[in-house]
């Protein structure tokens, strides 16, 4: 056999072996059952339930504080900016006659998952889930705050938040959210994880505006991820350090009562931003 014939024979053998190996691998893959991926909802995880990059959920001590705030007011009006299996558990805490729970999320996937979970719990575990779109990324926080400080319409609201002319007010939310009286408001969404992600400026401002516009007793407002600059500045600007009653890790609990200056959110001067 000539060298050329020998080389041809070797190539044919290797090609045949490669083809047989490929067939075996294909058969093995097709006969093995597929393993579907598990979302945070399947695993009972604690993602923040927002579109885009997710931040970590509340740790055990933070969730214990938040749960105690809701339990102390239940049955009550509970509004939550953010949606995850962890946050959805608050609906069961806020149980009893007259309780009303609403979640606001920018994620269609999380909204659908939450509705399936709630439907499986039956009438006793019902809660409303609302979709919204957050227009402003976290990177625009400082420019928005400077404009809000210079705009009279962004001062303390005197009427329904739905009619606010302030850009920070989430006026696209449904009337059943903006016209309701909430006893507890939780801000753990949207993501706000980076400058290009939806920021929580509007959620914090709207929570403060709803609390100030509400008649009657004090409103408890809890803000998560207070280790981040945007959350810290906006909470101090609109929820006020004078109203801070408890903190655990990255979760701060404010109690916003009636009274105070008629045209401002806080009695103290605004925090200077350099």
Automatic annotation (TrEMBL):
InterPro entries: IRX15/GXM/AGM. This is Polysaccharide biosynthesis domain-containing protein. One of its GO terms (cellular component) is Golgi membrane. It comes from Triticum aestivum (Wheat). Residues 29-43 have a biased composition (Low complexity). Pfam families: IRX15_IRX15L_GXM. It is a single-pass membrane protein. The chain crosses the membrane at residues 6-25. It is found in: Golgi apparatus membrane. Residues 29-48 are annotated as: Disordered.
């Amino acid at each position: 056999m000539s060298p050329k014939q020998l080389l041809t024979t070797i190539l044919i053998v290797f090609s045949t072996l490669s083809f047989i190996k490929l067939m075996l691998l294909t058969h093995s893959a097709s006969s093995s059952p597929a393993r579907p991926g598990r979302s945070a909802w399947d695993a009972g995880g604690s993602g923040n339930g927002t579109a885009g990059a997710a931040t970590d959920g509340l740790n055990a001590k933070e969730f214990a504080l938040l749960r105690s705030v809701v339990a102390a007011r239940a049955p009550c009006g509970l509004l939550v900016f953010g949606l995850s299996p962890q946050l959805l558990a608050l609906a069961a805490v806020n149980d009893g006659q007259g309780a009303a729970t609403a979640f606001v999320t920018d994620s269609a996937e999380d909204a659908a998952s939450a509705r399936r979970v709630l439907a499986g719990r039956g009438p006793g575990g019902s809660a409303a889930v609302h979709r919204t779109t957050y227009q402003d990324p976290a990177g625009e926080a400082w420019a928005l705050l400077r404009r809000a400080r210079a705009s009279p319409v962004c001062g303390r609201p005197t009427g329904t938040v739905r009619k606010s002319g302030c850009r920070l007010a989430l006026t696209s939310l449904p009337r059943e959210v903006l016209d309701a009286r909430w006893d507890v408001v939780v801000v753990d969404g949207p993501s706000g994880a980076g400058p290009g992600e939806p920021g929580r400026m509007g959620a914090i401002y709207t929570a403060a505006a709803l609390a100030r516009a509400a008649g009657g007793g004090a409103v408890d407002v809890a803000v998560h991820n207070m280790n981040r600059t945007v959350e810290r500045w906006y909470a101090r600007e609109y929820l006020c350090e004078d109203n801070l009653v408890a903190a655990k890790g990255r979760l701060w609990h404010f109690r916003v009562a009636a009274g105070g200056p008629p045209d401002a959110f806080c009695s103290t001067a605004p925090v200077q931003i350099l």
